[in-house]
Design a protein that fits this description.
With about 100 residues, the chain is α+β, with helices and mostly antiparallel strands. It has two helices and five strands.
């Protein structure tokens, strides 16, 4: 039983650290953040955020609108591929967070 528990812990660690689908994001690059959602009507991705640093699979990202810093696992990040100016990135983020009047 103890051996199975240790093997499961080791296997889980390897799956996280050596997953071929995991991409590395360089510092100061832009990513989409997928936070935990309790409300399914909230947009899935919060974009864009800037990668400040990382240690292994744990990334520190910064929200570009309110400067909030969040630490998250790489599986919660997606590449932000739109080529825009910094002011356009911020306006995109503000537009995604501003409630629409019906």
């Amino acid at each position: 039983m103890v051996a199975q528990k240790n093997q499961l812990a080791t296997d889980s660690h390897h799956l996280v650290e050596y997953d071929p689908r995991v991409t590395e994001f360089p510092d100061h690059s832009y990513v989409l953040f997928i936070p935990d959602r309790s409300d399914k009507l909230v947009p899935r991705h919060r974009d864009p955020n800037q990668v400040m640093s990382h240690a292994g699979a744990v990334y520190t990202i910064q929200d570009l609108v309110n400067d909030k810093v969040v630490m998250t696992h790489i599986h919660n990040l997606r590449p932000f591929t739109v080529t825009t100016t910094p002011s356009t990135r911020i306006s995109l983020q503000l537009r995604n967070r501003t409630p629409k009047n019906s």
